[in-house]
């Protein structure tokens, strides 16, 4: 099963582009064309090496391309040139995300903390620090930050998902369930809350409720093949727990069609085949699973 917190991050984490970047000259680049943006902002920097906003914008473009070292370099130049204001907080936050992507969690936390110190209402930095504490296994600190973020932005559904996952790690399932319910009430079409709530239902052996949540989750992720595969796999395991092997086999085959290199899916299908008395097919899947690298 995929890492729960990373699943949320894939949906929720984004670089915050601050208003100060508007001071950099506009470009003719298409939206999301980061290579074009880098080329354009490089020209602006060459023409005016003191153009801090161009460094900020280019740093974010480097981040979006996964060039985290260059992003850190550009964002450091931006940070060095800014007064203590909310735009400086944006610089620290963006650099913190780059450090986090490099798994330099201590540096990331230092930057998010600096952003919060400069601008205490930088909710995005509070959330990102909470997520980074989670990566370090500091669940209490993560929950504290996410609670602070929820106080500032009580209508942001994703923050409840993040805190709910941290509660799950502490085996505080009732609190986690409450957060997932709140997230769903705020954003009924946000699939991650349904997925994570289904995990709690599975742990509680409420398999029918888990399947109902996964039905919704799958319907919301028809275009996201990785998440869709995970939904089918998890629903298959719940059908398997109910002894509904035909339905379980249907779902696990759908998961394999979407993600044929995940050994955990083959192991699940092997268990279904064994329950159905298809021992040779089960053995073949177990052999296949053993031949695949761990995801």
List the helices and strands and how they pair.
Elements: H1 4-12, H2 34-47, H3 52-64, H4 68-81, H5 86-101, H6 105-118, H7 123-135, H8 139-152, H9 157-169, H10 173-186, H11 191-203, H12 207-220, H13 225-241, H14 245-258, H15 263-275, H16 279-291
How is this structure best described in words?
By secondary structure, this protein is mainly α. It has three domains: 1-119, Alpha Horseshoe (Serine Threonine Protein Phosphatase 5, Tetratricopeptide repeat); 137-220, Tetratricopeptide repeat domain (Serine Threonine Protein Phosphatase 5, Tetratricopeptide repeat), CATH 1.25.40; 225-295, Serine Threonine Protein Phosphatase 5, Tetratricopeptide repeat, CATH 1.25.40.10. The protein is 74% helix and 0% strand. It has helices at residues 4-12, 34-47, 52-64, 68-81, 86-101, 105-118, 123-135, 139-152, 157-169, 173-186, 191-203, 207-220, 225-241, 245-258, 263-275, 279-291. Helix 9 (157-169) packs antiparallel against helix 10 and helix 9 packs parallel to helix 11. The model is unreliable at 7-22 (pLDDT under 50).
